[in-house]
Design goal:
about 30% helix, globular, about 160 residues, seven-stranded mixed β-sheet, alpha+beta
Length: about 160
């Protein structure tokens, strides 16, 4: 399996992976699937971040994108620029098979040579697999937002995890 920087040609696969979670889960609080146009703007913004942000994809043996991970703006205010939120999604049929560890570690390695000094992850609960993955890579829970989101006629809490880079 290969991990590499995402390219424009990967956007349909990234959207297929992500939009499954939009439609079927509360893992993301998005209600509407992403369009290719929105995904293109997303990629351009992250790629043109002066080395702060990275977008990676993981391919299987056949060259098919089976997951993606990226870091992005934590909050809009300039002082937060040294902090970054990380996100990882794997194809829904491949979750909990250990494939995310290498992908997320590669992202953290890229971040270690960037101006970012702190990584954050916001995880909808319950999600024991994601919590284990992050904790394995040195993240610690620093916060809990109770019933902060509402999707599929249910309130959802999120854990906030952090890790120094």
């Amino acid at each position: 399996m290969t991990i590499r920087a995402a390219q424009a040609g990967d956007l349909p696969a990234i959207n297929t992976i992500y939009n499954h979670y939009v439609r079927e889960t509360s893992i993301t609080f998005d209600y509407e699937p992403w369009t290719i146009e929105r995904r293109q703007a997303w990629l351009e913004k992250l790629v043109n971040s002066d080395g702060y942000y990275h977008v990676l994809v993981k391919e299987n043996e056949n060259g098919e994108v089976i997951g993606f991970a990226y870091n992005s703006e934590f909050r809009e205010k300039r002082a937060y620029k040294v902090s970054s939120e990380i996100t990882i999604y794997l194809h829904h049929e491949l979750r909990t098979k250990g494939l995310g560890t290498e992908l997320l570690q590669t992202l953290l390695d890229k971040m270690s040579v960037s101006p970012v000094s702190r990584a954050y992850s916001v995880i909808t609960l319950p999600n024991p697999a994601s919590m284990r993955l992050h904790e394995k890579l040195g993240f610690q829970q620093v916060g809990l937002l109770t019933d902060v989101g509402y999707k599929f006629d249910k309130y959802h809490s999120v854990a906030i995890l952090e890790r120094p880079i």
